[in-house]
Amino acid sequence: MTASAYHIPVLLNEALKMLSISPDGVYVDCTFGGGGHSRGILSQLSEYGRLIAFDQDPDAAANALSDPRFTLIRANFRHIKRFLRLQEIRSVDGVLADLGVSSYQFDTPERGFSLRFDAPLDMRMNSEASRTAAEILNNWPEDELSRLFMKYGELPHCRRIARAIVKARSAQAILTTGQLNEICKPFCKKNREHQTLAQIYQALRIEVNQELDALKEMLMQCTELVKPGGRLVVISYHSLEDRLVKVFMRSGNFEDRTEKDFYGNDLSPWRPINKKAIEPEESEIISNTRARSARLRAAIRTELS
User: Fold this and answer.
1) What is the pLDDT of residues 171-186, one digit of tens each?
2) pLDDT tens, residue by residue, 115-126
């Protein structure tokens, strides 16, 4: 496996521009993958700069960079503060997170992320974790499955899909993506089968990996870690992530509750740089179709809190 096969970095130039890298600074790449974004950051650091990267996927370790300024931590970015403390780092100049599933994970059938292959229903970003998509599909009650597909998949037929899954598993355990696709096809609109199935897979993947909870935890820790004037850059791929990031960068919390001082001045710990999310150019989408849904948002850590 090569780094280029693992993941083509999305919105690389835009991300580096928004990070506004200080050559001697300390930066974090929350989602190392194939190392594309990390290489871009290192290219702008001096010999005194430092980059700490996180990735919970054991396969990503094969792409670790041989550079004295670089450290790869095999852990979920939800633990960013704890692991940085172990590296004796109390504050950083910038944090980058590309929240997408890597091309390598999508293209490796046994990982179960893609509906293109008939493969085990796995979907674990950390292949050493315990819970898989198959366990959820075969053990969760109908009501919980329905809520899952509505909350994380925004599927209008969530109740009917959950009922069909419970009925199917009573006859035979649902263990492969092929089985799941067949069960769900009756609820897909004609010529939109891929979109509906992708929403089902998204819901399962988010739950298996606790993606939104991990994102929230990481973002809140960034308020403590990023120095005033430092940058936070996040690339998301679906509306659930993008909404969380947008609200957090606007208010510093997930309730969109903006605190003000006695004079009515905004006390948010972050100031968004781009009010509208940055999207890939058509040329990038042509060369990397998985960039199509990418949305980049960036914010500066304020000195007000």
Assistant:
1) 999 999 999 999 999 9
2) 777 899 999 988
Beta-strand runs (E) in 174-278:
226-236, 270-272
Give the three-state DSSP class for 232: strand
Q: What are the CA-CA distances from residue 81 to residues 12, 92, 154 (Å)?
A: 25, 11, 32
Query: Edge-to-edge strand order for the sheet containing 70-73?
Result: 70-73, 50-54, 26-29, 92-98, 226-236, 295-301, 270-272
Give the Å distances, CA to CA, from 225 to 90, 97, 230, 278.
Answer: 7, 14, 9, 24
Which H or E element spans position 25? none
Give CA–CA dist 201/181, Å, rounded: 10
Residues 159-173: tens digit of each pLDDT:
999 999 999 999 999
- Residue of 123, 133, 208 whose CA lies nearest to 173: 133
Q: Are 51 and 83 in contact (CB under 8 A)?
A: no
Q: Which domains does the chain have, with CATH numbers?
A: 3-103+211-301 (3.40.50.150), 109-209 (1.10.150.170)
Rounded to 10°, the helix 193-209/177-184 angle is 130
Cβ–Cβ under 8 Å, residues 158 and 149 = yes
Q: What is the three-state SS of 143-157?
A: HHHHHHHHHHHCCCC
